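SAMPLE LOG
Freezer: B-3
Tube label: C17
Construct: single chain, 221 aa
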Amino acid sequence: MGRSKLAKFAAIGERENVVEPGDERYGQLKGKWRALHFDNNKPLILEVGCGRGEYTVGMARLFPEKNFIGSDIKGARLWKGSTLAESEDLSNVAFLRTFIEQLEDNFDTDEVDEIWITFPDPRPRDRDIKRRLTSPRFLNLYQKILKPDGILHLKTDNLALYAFTLETLQHELKGKIRDLLYTDDLYTSDLQQHTMSIYTTYEKRYLAEGVPIKYLQFRFN
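STRUCTURE (predicted):
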């Protein structure tokens, strides 16, 4: 690991807005994020695979009346978002460094009001289907921590992942979801209002290249 990454890991290890393995708070905030970390009872929004936290921070700026948590395993990436949130004194932002598979260790049943998945790795190889963040095993996990009326959102540039997700929702999860909305070209549709005009670095690059952004949202039954 390079010196830069080591420095970033050391920095996030000292930050109040980052919870990670080895931190005494890791796993202890399950069911208690509002009370113990945010000290309020506001809605809790989770971004899964948040990368550098651009979307998490962007939403926190727009909605001070809500709490936001960005989750990713890459500490060097979380450093960027946590630095930005700290510099802007955004007290409604936290970051959780963990594997997606361990979300249940950190969130209680029905604890999360909303989940965002923004530009995840599409995992194009067939052998990696189970690792896609919209595969049935992960969708089942999200359902456990998401409130019954909670919304799950996906934004992606990848047509194959978008098609895979729709197929999964409309067939494998048929009868288990409701209120499905989707478009293969977000910015020519009337669904763009749901994404609040927040653009990540990757999204800006895709749009500049003329790649349509795909979007969908739904609720579990």
